């Protein structure tokens, strides 16, 4: 009986160690991802603007291709803000709420909408 218990204890500890190694691998993969947080902000603010003022943007095509072009123009007019961790994203969210950053993002989105209106992706 004691031999069976020791084998079970050994297997349990090995599984625990293996599980811990797997969790560490996943965490290190997540932390090694670099993301331009400005992309997230532009996408969110563009969606909010279009939803809040649908009457203002009736002539703006909102297909995925056109929305991607608007985001690309907006992002090309903004400084990137790279983050690597969830804590970095929280800091990015905090920094994005400053009035100047918000107005810069909205102005860049406006440039993207204007560029699309001047040169539509499709009729």
Strand-helix topology:
Blueprint: H1 2-31, E1 35-36, H2 37-52, H3 64-76, E2 82-83, H4 86-96, H5 99-118
Antiparallel strand pairs: 1-2
Helix pairs in contact: 3-5
User: Mind describing the biggest β-sheet?
Assistant: 2 strands, antiparallel
Shape field: elongated
Counting DSSP E segments of at least 2 residues, the number of strands comes to: 2
Number of helices: 5
Helix content bin: over 70%
Number of domains: 2
The fraction of residues in strands falls at under 5%
Any idea what the radius of gyration is? 24 Å
Computed structural class: mainly alpha
Low-confidence stretches: 1-28
State mean pLDDT (0 to 100 scale): 77
């Amino acid at each position: 009986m004691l031999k069976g218990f020791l084998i079970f204890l050994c297997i349990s500890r090995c599984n625990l160690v293996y599980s811990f190694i797997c969790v560490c691998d996943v965490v290190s993969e997540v932390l090694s991802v670099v993301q331009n947080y400005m992309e997230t902000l532009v996408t969110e603010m563009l969606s909010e603007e279009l939803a809040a003022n649908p009457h203002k943007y009736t002539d703006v095509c909102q297909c995925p291709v056109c929305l991607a072009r608007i985001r690309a123009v907006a992002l090309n007019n903004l400084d990137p803000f790279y983050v690597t961790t969830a804590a970095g994203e929280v800091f990015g969210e905090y920094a994005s709420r400053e009035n100047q950053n918000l107005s810069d993002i909205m102005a860049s989105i406006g440039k993207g909408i204007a560029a699309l209106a001047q040169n539509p992706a499709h009729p």
